[in-house]
Amino acid sequence: SLRDGDPETGEPVRQAILLAPVRYPRKLICTGANYPDHLREMGEGEAPSGVRPYFFLVPPTTTIVGPGEPVAISVEESLRADYEAELAVIIGREGRNVAASAAEEHVAGYTLLNDITARGLLARERSIAPPFTFDWFSAKGGDTYCPTGPGMVPSWLVPDPHELKLRLWHNGVLKQDGHTSQMIFNIWELVAAASERVTLEPGDIIATGTPAGVGVAQGLAL
Question: What is the pTM of this model?
């Protein structure tokens, strides 16, 4: 089995091309506003007590690409493409109404994810009605807007996923330098909350939010 294997004894595969760890998840569930420093840099202050995690779905099949694949960003000024480094949880066991205390049993492993956002497309200047002002489909669902990988680390190789550094470099300059211990809602709480609304299935991905340092807060959104 994979658990019994030793990567050190394996034969290297020359000229291999790494693909996305999960190319066709049934669901890509993104968590919004899950780091207090990111809330502050976006001018939102502290998270109020008693709130639930905020989730939204991203269309996966054309959005997800693997490591090293180009991201198609338009040159139009109104797009304002931005980066968001996130730890992603890959579900390994089906579950509905999963208790936070049992959430770890439903996790297959972890990977990295860049939740690219077209900031300029998020809020519409004109909308049909006020509830439809924000266009998450256009801002988050563009082709190639979700690079993932380079691989999945099995859950048994991660003693505590809340003790991981989360970093992103922009043109060789470190811009995001967070830590998963800073999450407002931890991974087990996110899995539990998501499973209250939908059945989690093997291969589903839950992106856990981004720390401070995004481009829009530094005037770097393209």
Answer: 0.93
